[in-house]
Structures are given as structure tokens and as C-alpha cells.
Design goal:
This protein is α/β, with parallel strands linked by helices. Helices cover 51% and strands 11% of the residues. Helix 4 packs across helix 5.
Length: 203
């Protein structure tokens, strides 16, 4: 596939996604676009979403979109002290809007977007699922269900070691932020996949 060949010459998922989009705009009458699935990766803080998403990218030859990476690269140097929730929310919204546009372009080229956007709230998952379906693509919701004590252990370790999945230091209040696990109805509606089948989703 030509769009994939173009992407291979530019390392990094953001750059790969960008050049796939450029290829589509430059060659709209080219070979027929292949259909792809939007992969939404959700779980509470410390569930292992980024590690899982990166593995999924390798398995489906997709493109990884990480909200943490975008926020750190674009805005970390400009963040106010003390941090303001409204400042974060506004910029997350801007990132998600552009990620949505780029994800559609990738899917139109036959490249599966793997969306690692936290998706802590049901409304954000529904929004991206609707975007995918309105654009003619399927959706799979990947749910990482991990106990809270194990998640905090992972987060604490990551804060100290700053391994490859580290983007920013997660405090206890951040860790305990609002998390709305997907219900069984939501999983059914979005072709749900349980990454770690520990227990059923709430009804």
C-alpha cells in the first residue's frame, strides 16, 4: 500500500500519521482506500494502556495516538504554576480534535488508529466511537481491568524509574481521578475486548 510505504520513511507515530494524511490529500483519486477499525484503549490510571496500545500497534500495523505524548510535547514547557484544570482541559480538547482528524485520515488509508487517550469517561469513548462510525469505520473498545492496588504500585514505580511509558509524574489525586468503567452494554455496542479478563463489566 503506497500510503504505508510513505510512512515507513518517517520514524515516530505522529510523523507517520501526518505523512499518511498528506498522501491522501495529494492523491485523492489513487487506489481505493481500505477500511480499518478504530481501536479505543481504555482503563483507569496505571492499568497499562500505553504498553498495551504499543503492542496492539505492532499486531495490527497501526498508528499509536497517545494523549500524554501530545500534551507533553506541545504544552509541557508552557504549563502554568500552579497547574489549572481548565488549562489542561482546553488543550486536551484541542489535541483530541486534531487526533480525530488524523485518525480518520489514517483509517481512510487502511491504517488502523490505536487511540490511547485515557478514555476515563463514557462520554469521551462515545464521542470517538461516533466519529469513527460517522466516517464509515468500525470500532473496538479495549478494556484493561486492573485492581487499584496493582495500578498504584505500577504508577509509583513508573514515577521513580521513568521508564519508556513515563510521560509525567502522577500524583495520588491524579491517580484517583474520575473513572467510569465501561458497562457490559457499552462493551457490546463497541465490539468490546477485555485485555485482562478479570471480571465482567458492570451492567
Amino acid at each position: 500500500m503506497a500510503a504505508l510505504v510513505v510512512g515507513k520513511y518517517y520514524p515516530g507515530d505522529i510523523y507517520r500519521a501526518y505523512f499518511i494524511r498528506v498522501y491522501i490529500l495529494w492523491n485523492p483519486g489513487g487506489s481505493e482506500a481500505m477500511t480499518s477499525t478504530f481501536h479505543l484503549v481504555c482503563g483507569a490510571t496505571g492499568a497499562g494502556k500505553t504498553t498495551y496500545a504499543r503492542d496492539l500497534v505492532r499486531r495490527c500495523n497501526g498508528v499509536h495516538f497517545s494523549i500524554d505524548e501530545w500534551m507533553v510535547e506541545l504544552f509541557a514547557s508552557d504549563q502554568p504554576e500552579p497547574m489549572r484544570f481548565d488549562w489542561i482541559t482546553e488543550r486536551v480538547g484541542r489535541c483530541e480534535h486534531q487526533i480525530g482528524r488524523m485518525a480518520i485520515s489514517c483509517a481512510q488509508a487502511g491504517v488502523a488508529p490505536v487511540l490511547d487517550l485515557s478514555f476515563l469517561r463514557a462520554s469521551s469513548r462515545a464521542s470517538f466511537a461516533a466519529l469513527a462510525r460517522q466516517s464509515g469505520f468500525d470500532v473496538t473498545l479495549h478494556f484493561l481491568d486492573v485492581p487499584a492496588d496493582e495500578r498504584w504500585r505500577r504508577v509509583s514505580s513508573r514515577n521513580e524509574t521513568r521508564d519508556e511509558t513515563f510521560s509525567l509524574t502522577v500524583t495520588r489525586p491524579m491517580f484517583e481521578s474520575i473513572w467510569e468503567p465501561p458497562t457490559s452494554a457499552e462493551m457490546s455496542a463497541h465490539q468490546g475486548a477485555y485485555a485482562f479478563p478479570r471480571q465482567s463489566a458492570p451492567g
